Amino acid sequence: MTDQTPAAPDWSRGTLASVLPSVADRLGVARYAARDVFDLPEVPRTVVVLVDGLGHDLLRQRSGHAPFLRAHFPETHRVPCGFPTTTATSMGSFGTGLLPGAHGLVGMQVLDPQTDRLLNELSWEGGPDPRLWQPHETVFEGVTGAGVEVTMVGPHYFDGSGLTTATLRGARFASGRTLDERVDAAVAAVRASRRALVYLYWGEVDKVGHVHGCQSWQWGDEVEAVDAALARLAARVPDDTSIVITADHGMVDVPFTDRIDLVHEPALMSGVRHLGGEPRSLQLYAEQGAAADVVSTWTERLGTRAAVLTREQAVDEGWFGPVRPAVLGRIGDVIVSMRGSFAVVHSGLMRPELVRLLGLHGSTSEAEIAVPVIVVPPRRGS
């Protein structure tokens, strides 16, 4: 695994947050004029596919499983998804076109300062009004307001969920259980309107990577299935339709022998009142006045296996992009970003199924942060 030192993402060029504004620009939506950073074709219809967990470097490494996507590598861009490299944060960036410090979804599990409770931004269980937590207009809302028919295709339980409402509101919802059903729904939606944006989500690559590891044969098999489905999608959309394929993050395999369990490390929990984030990227919410001691203790114990920063350091260095005042309190007093193939778990506080996962993400290794933006041009011009 990489031993790269964790560092703030490079926001100076295109990122995952650039994808939907770029698509909207090339669909002719005036409010997104000149936002395209990927040199996309100008078209009346586009299908955007997000494959959860399909990191750019993983795809390149295992491209033998993906002949359709491999054929489009010349039209592929490599961009950072943002920090932390986790689905909730990335969906905020993807859906709003904003960086994490602006949209405010700054981790898988973060503090709600109003209640002093942790919020899991994936499940949103017991969470605040998602429209208040993330108050900015989504790209789907902006595109719909311009008269473009917008459809989101995903599992039925995404419809109206907290995360969907916070990050992807504004689209008509179409559900599908299998990947073939979702391809069918996407094709039907894009054919139904002469000016359309269709978004299709698929999550099984991430799930397989978590359980079996992203270097497993099972991961390769799932990528093969996705690649074949994308080839069928490309063959069935109208001739004037482009397809853009991206991901929310990559992944690394973390051996169970390369982990610390905080159940057995009471000194590391001293001064910590809430443990947020996830095993590759923890956010520690300290007792009053204890942050400096927490930084010192964690730095000494973890050594070169992690970067340990205060909230102020992370914000000043741009890890979250510019941070609006209402978001500051959601970020941990201390950020712990893991290096190499290392993770920190807490088997007493984290769900057992999370502790058991082999493939993880959240930190800033290239394998986790780099995602593809793959452009499949229309078969003919608009």
UniProtKB/TrEMBL annotation:
SUPFAM superfamilies the UniProt entry points to: Alkaline phosphatase-like
InterPro entries documented for this protein: Alkaline_phosphatase_core_sf (IPR017850), Phosphodiest/P_Trfase (IPR002591)
One function term, GO molecular function aspect: hydrolase activity
Gene3D superfamilies per UniProt: Alkaline Phosphatase, subunit A
One Pfam entry name: Phosphodiest
Lineage: superkingdom: Bacteria
PANTHER family reported for this sequence: BIS(5'-ADENOSYL)-TRIPHOSPHATASE, ECTONUCLEOTIDE PYROPHOSPHATASE/PHOSPHODIESTERASE
Protein name: Nucleotide pyrophosphatase
